[in-house]
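Q: Given only this backbone (260 positions), what sequence would you predict?
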């Protein structure tokens, strides 16, 4: 379990390299065992395993991979939606304050400070599932500024609506941070990785008649396994580079809200 966590936390090139090395080496071992001089004759004595046996193993592997991929894609989808909601709430907060026609320089300033703290300081830390103290302080300052501003005198409903918009920013940030530290269970990853090994073994078992046929089948299948598992692993962390979600929806706030 610890090894899987360490593997998934590696940079993408190292992650793919280890995945490729492991399954390629195991495929090579299976070919050597099947057609080597020492144990090859004994291994080939098991000839007769029919092809549907391999199909059954691959089907189980595909189902488990599908479950794992669904978890990863759903987490990334929710993370992207959360970032968009956070940016939209910041812009809405600025637009509402401006539409009321009263001074809102303090709110705009707090919005910009928050957006800068999130983009420049919190985003890099989220790669490790951590929050930024600067962004936390900027969030509290934004909420305090909105709560203390009497931007709509005599209209408690508008003041409450403005504060609720600011609170949506806080809620979106909380969900974003939760998703940044949320990963698929190690048990699911272990099952998928082990079933890929079992699929390689089953492929070798149905290709014991001729070495070239086994090598060709093993190369094609192993490359497919590396491609699929590598693609899922590369998206395991929603905010991990180089394929992680970018802070563009929040950075856009800096172009919309004037620097006053």
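A: Predicted residues:
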């Amino acid at each position: 379990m610890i090894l899987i966590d360490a593997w998934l936390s590696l940079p993408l090139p190292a992650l793919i390299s280890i995945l490729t090395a492991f399954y390629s080496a195991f495929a090579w071992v299976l070919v050597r065992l099947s057609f080597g001089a020492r144990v090859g004759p004994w291994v080939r004595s098991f000839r007769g395993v029919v092809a549907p046996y391999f199909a059954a193993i691959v089907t189980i592997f595909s189902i488990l991979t599908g479950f794992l991929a669904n978890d990863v894609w759903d987490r990334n989808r929710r993370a992207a939606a959360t970032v968009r909601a956070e940016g939209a709430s910041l812009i809405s907060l600025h637009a509402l304050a401006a539409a009321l026609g009263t001074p809102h320089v303090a709110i705009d300033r707090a919005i910009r400070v928050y957006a800068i703290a999130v983009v420049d300081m919190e985003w890099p830390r989220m790669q490790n599932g951590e929050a930024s103290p600067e962004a936390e302080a900027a969030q509290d300052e934004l909420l305090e500024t909105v709560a203390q501003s009497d931007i709509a005198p005599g209209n408690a409903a508008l003041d409450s609506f403005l504060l609720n918009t600011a609170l949506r920013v806080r809620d979106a940030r909380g969900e974003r941070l939760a998703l940044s530290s949320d990963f698929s269970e190690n048990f699911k990853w272990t099952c998928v990785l082990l079933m890929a090994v079992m699929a390689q073994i089953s492929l070798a078992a149905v290709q014991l008649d001729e070495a070239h046929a086994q090598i060709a089948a093993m190369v094609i299948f192993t490359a497919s396994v590396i491609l699929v598992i590598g693609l899922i692993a590369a998206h395991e962390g929603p905010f991990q580079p180089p394929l992680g979600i970018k802070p563009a929806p929040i950075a856009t706030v800096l172009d919309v809200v004037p620097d006053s």
